[in-house]
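Build the 3D complex.
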Amino acid sequence: MARPLGMATRQAYGKALVEIGKLHPNVVVLDADLSKSTMTKDFAKAYPDRFFNVGIAEANLVGVASGLATTGKIPFASSFACFLMCKGFDQLRLGVAYAENNVKIVVSHGGISIGEDGVSQMSVEDVALACELPKMVVMVPSDEHCTYQAIRAAVEHKGPVFVRTGRAKAPLVYDAPPADFAIGKAITVREGKDVTVIANGMLVGPALDAAESLAEQGVSVRVLDMHTVKPLDEEAVVKAAKETKGIVVAEEHLVHGGLGSAVAQVTARMHPARIEFVAIQDTYAESATGEELMAKYGLSEPDVIAAIRRILA
Amino acid sequence: MAQYGPPQTVSQLEKTAKELRRDVIRMLYEAKSGHPGGSLSAADIVAALYFRVMRHDPQNPSWEKRDRFIMSKGHAVPIVYAAMAGTGYFPKEELLTLRKLNSRLQGHPSAKDLPGIEASTGSLGQGLSIGLGMALGLRMDGSDSRVFVILGDGEIEEGQVWEAAMAAAHFKTENLIAILDRNRYQLDGSTDEIMNVCPVVDKWKAFGWRVLDIDGHSMHQVVHALEAAKEQTGRPTVIVAKTTKGKGVSFMENDNEYHGKAPSKDEMERALAELS
Ligand SMILES: Cc1ncc(C[n+]2csc(CCOP(=O)(O)OP(=O)(O)O)c2C)c(N)n1
Ligand SMILES: [Mg+2]
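Done.
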């Protein structure tokens, strides 16, 4: 049974930015001709003097953001995940990560749930790229409430932060901004003792749905909202490895380099565990509706259930 | 639909362009998403290329002697699909599969999926570099094929476009022809407002290109410029085509709401009536 949909996480970002703009006069926002899609347009309207649209120029976007950070501003730079991370990566590397500049990268249109626009606008590798930047905090919030907290945390954190948001309406995981949200701390959204699902972004909803379905069949599934991929909550991962029979990692990303890889590394080092991966295999997707793609590429509730069953088999 | 055959006259092309525009409206209505504005502004140029200027064989998309075509502003691919169906690359009915699961007509051009699409685009700024590579390779092989690349005027804000422009002049690729769809709008608003790209003609000249400045909706001028661009001048040529975003559908013209919004049923019917 699918959960009710909340607003898209990009929309929650837009709303949060306006609020943060009021509290933090040093916050400035940059976009690359996608402010209507990333939702920075709301900030642009509220604070036109603190908003810079650099046009269709993502490398410049990141470079300018890093320069602004050196003057004490707190720049939020936004575009689609694929364009910003791929065209701005060298600038992120030297001007943001290596320099440890206080730049916040908030991307929209992460994953394949964007649907019809197809491969060129989809990002299936952005989390891996972000994780490859030393000291970069990497967050993939699950719903509107989690996004609100991620953006609040990003502005408080000193140093580079990456937050991935999505285009599609996100299944609601919380009824209000989770009070126990902290960078690097998983939120246990459901207790369970047989298997643990560690999910983030658009997969937390389906993970909870799967846990509910299996509860009716006597299987007890723990679900962690692992909104922060880096630094990873090692304690929560080890606890899951110790207390349950295995771990399913579920994410809207290529199977290599994202949350799955991070979890596997921690278990391999600290407490080897049986792990199944619900993720996009070694492929790009295509054009279709978001729901069709999530089903075709193995990112829906039945896929999480099948992975849990494989662990219990 | 005009059948692909002998090169069309200017007045035939004018009719064809209108039919392609109708196809675009039908496709986008059926797909429920997509980009009408930039497809319609490029319609006259694309019609002239596919139905007259380009050397190509729809029955044999990988024909060695073909000219190459790249829609660098990939979101305008519906107009290309319409021209491809019109010239016989695939049946017209397939147009209505645009953006649907398992379709070869991806939301942005996919060279892997559809024979006749020369380069996968959709991340703006990449097409001219790819076209330059093709132009260099063809020249190395002694081919007289041309490479045509359609660029958006928002797209030229990408630095890569100017890296390619500088290199093309340096390598004297006279077989490379860029067409700039100068419709004065990008996604967030007008180019004047979002990022001023002026002076466009002088920029290309300064980068060493031959510039032909035309009205991109005068079929006579479009055909004349595309044919002139084939002359061997030792330099790459850019046609700066002044266009209107959404051209041909009154309520879409210069209304950037239709940059990336599909027509409703009512809008589709009104648009088709205007284009009949
Ligand atoms: C690298 C990149 N950045 C952003 C986008 C999102 N985008 C799609 S269309 C568009 C505006 C394009 O404007 P223009 O090139 O003038 O095209 P046209 O007006 O002909 O539609 C943008 C920003 C993209 N596709 N690629
Ligand atoms: Mg334009």
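The mean pLDDT of chain A is 98.
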